[in-house]
Every structure is written in C-alpha cells, then in structure tokens.
Design a protein that fits this description.
single chain; 391 residues; alpha+beta; nine-stranded mixed sheet; five-stranded antiparallel sheet; 18 strands; 24% strand; globular
C-alpha cells in the first residue's frame, strides 16, 4: 500500500491557502474561507460521494457505503482566529489520503471507509466547541442554533437551520480515528514520532462576574473603594494557586472585561471566563468546588462540562502494532485538549487519536508545526490500523 505523498503535500498546502494572513490562519465556521477549504477536500476525494448533514458536518463516503459500521477518520477545517496550519486540517487531509490509499490498494471492506470534517470544532465564533459532533450525539439541543457571534448573527442564520436533525448519526460510525498535531511538548524530548492518545481530560467552562462600584479614579480615596477589578485579580491568582494545589489540574482565565472601561473610572463590574481541566473528573470538580467556596461573593455560572473521555483499547493497540511494523516509534499520550474524538468516545463510539510530534509544543498559534515526514508517518500508520479494523 502506497501513500500519495504528493497529494498530501498539495492538499494541505491548498487548504492552508484559505484564510491565510500574515498573522496566521482564520477559517471561521460557515464562511467563504472554510467553504473553499472544504471544496478542495471534496475535489480530492476521487470516486467518493460527499454530503453535508443537518449540522453542517461534511461526510465523504463510498458510493456503496453501508448504513452503519463505518470505519471513519477525520477532524475539522475551521480554525481559531489567527491559528496555525495543522490543527484540524492535518486530520482531514491526512485521513483522506489514508482512505484513498486503502481504496487504491483494493483493501477488502473499503466501502466502509469514510472521512468526516466536523463543523465548528473550535467553537470560537459562537462559543460552541465541538458543535458538529456534540449535535450529532445529541448533547446540543435546538437552542444552540440561536447562539450568536459578535456581529449578532446566529448559527441558524449563518449555517444549519435545523442542526438537531443530525442527532443519532454517530451510530453509523463503527470506529473513529483522528490525526492531530501534538499540543504540548512530550514527544520531541522523548525522541518519539507519534503519540497514541489514551484519553482526553475532563474539562469545564464557566463565566463569572464580580460586582463593585464605578466611581471617579481621581476623587475616590483608596480606602473604601469597591474596585471590581481588584477582586477579579484576587480570583485570577486563586485559580493559579488552586490548580497548582491539585496535581494534574490546569486552570485558565482567558478573558476579562471590566465595565465601564474608562481609563479614569474605577471598574464597577468585571466579567471573565474560567477553564478548568484535569485527567479525571473528581480532580476537575475539586478545583471548581474550592473556588466556589473561597469566593461566595462572585457569581460563577456553569457553561459546559466534558467528562474525561477514555479511548478504545483495541484501537490503541492496533495503532501501536501498526507503528511497530512500519518502524515508527510511538508512545501512549493523554491529552488535555477537547476534540471531536472525545465527544464520540463519550457517546460510546470506539475512538482514538494519533498525535504527530511537534518540535516546539505550540498549538492554536501560527508557529504550530509538525515535520512532513512525521505527518506522513502518521498517515501510513493510520492506514495500516484502519486496514486491521476492516479485516
């Protein structure tokens, strides 16, 4: 079986011409830039059918694809604003190249092979991470279609009108594989090419509000001020301390918005976000519980929760075995990021991820990178592992 390295190179480059700027790549969901990238993938899927489901997920399947038991690979083509060239795109391009190689080799059962490019995985436009896969498995209801971006445009206006009609489509998938650039720096120091994901971390997102009193910055004495930003700063530092006190946990305040925002006005209100992650659910929950107890005066509202997703042991073993046969080094690697593979795993779909070594560990940034030979090794290992699953 031979991987078309030229196709991989051309398709990844073509996809990454879409939404490119000097500051990075931006392909928001349901935009011209994203549609252009999807068209390139569709055009490369020689001999295969394609369609968008009701949630906007792009399915590429065999003309004789069965109703279920599909052996699927993929990822997403949307990006964070000013993101990198690999996150998402590598999984879709590499997955398609692997599937086309298996089909060209005449592997028995090739009609079960499929590629999915999930809609709005990053969630950066509508605050709806893993929109396509969550809608597919039913964890997002119809109300999600009314979420609006900063311009006031809703998902229903920008893209799918009735996304929940896609609910249940995950039952078509018998196994799901996803290639992704490494998000962190574990493989390069260990001189290992691929990381086979064992699990995704438990995650939670909250929004919080501190109330104070806006007043004149010059005429209000320091004593007696009710500066909401000072209390917010105490909360941010507490997030740091609390996460450090729980081994394996991470906590991030990614956004702060003081009101009214004048340079000569004491902030009367501050809103912010909180992201807490850990490799297991109890540790994640302990971090947020500690913060709630320590700051009863701060309104902390839950936005979303993802429990730890455990990947399929059989798929993990197949990937390691395929890597060994091809002379590619691999190691187990848990991940703290969220991915469509985790959504599917939590819904009972046997799933797994393959991380490609990153020399700098940077992600969601134009500097994210994985060498071409590493990416191609991942495609070869993926194809070999999918062939095992078809056997």
């Amino acid at each position: 079986m031979s991987i078309d390295t030229d196709l991989f190179r051309r398709l990844l480059a073509g996809v990454n011409e879409q939404g490119r700027s000097p500051d990075g790549w931006t392909r928001a969901p349901w935009t011209d830039e994203l549609r252009a990238a999807e068209r390139l993938v569709i055009e490369a899927a020689d001999g295969m059918d394609w369609e968008y489901d009701a949630a906007g997920n792009l399915w590429i399947t065999d003309p004789a694809a069965p109703a279920d038991g599909l052996v699927v690979t993929g990822s997403h083509l949307d990006t964070v604003p000013k993101g990198g060239a690999f996150d998402g795109a590598l999984g879709v391009v590499g997955g398609l190249v692997a599937v086309l190689a298996l089909r060209a080799a005449g592997v028995p059962g090739a009609e079960r092979l499929a590629v999915i490019s999930f809609a709005d995985e990053e969630g950066s436009r509508f605050n709806t991470p893993c929109f396509g896969s969550r809608t597919m498995v039913g964890t997002f209801g119809d109300e999600v279609a009314d979420m609006r971006d900063r311009d006031g445009i809703s998902i229903r206006e920008a893209g799918p009108k009735d996304p929940t009609a896609a609910a249940g489509l995950h039952r078509r998938i018998g196994a799901y594989y996803e290639i992704h650039v490494e998000q962190g720096l574990a493989l390069d120091p260990a001189d290992v090419t691929l990381g086979i994901a064992t699990r995704l971390s438990a995650r939670g997102r909250w929004e919080w509000t501190v109330q104070g009193e806006a007043n004149h910055a010059g005429t209000t004495p320091m004593a007696g001020r009710r500066d909401a930003l000072v209390r917010a700063a105490e909360f941010v530092l507490a997030v740091q301390r609390t996460a450090l006190a729980h081994p394996g946990a991470v906590g991030t305040v990614g956004r702060l918005a003081p009101w009214p925002g004048g340079t000569n006005v004491i902030p009367g209100r501050v809103t912010g976000t909180l992201d807490v992650r850990a490799l297991d659910n109890p540790t994640r929950d302990a971090v947020i519980r500690s913060l709630l107890e320590a700051f009863p005066d701060i309104e902390i509202e839950h936005r979303s929760t993802d429990d730890a997703a455990i990947f399929d042991a059989g798929l993990i073993a197949d990937l390691h075995a395929s890597a060994a046969e091809l002379g590619v080094s691999s190691m187990d690697l848990p991940s703290y990021a969220g991915h469509d593979a985790g959504t599917l795993a939590l819904a009972g779909v046997p799933s797994v991820m393959v991380f490609t070594r990153s020399p700098n560990g940077i992600s969601h940034n134009p500097a994210e990178h994985s060498d071409e030979d590493v990416c191609l090794a991942a495609v070869e290992v993926l194809a070999a592992a999918m062939a095992r699953r078809l056997a």
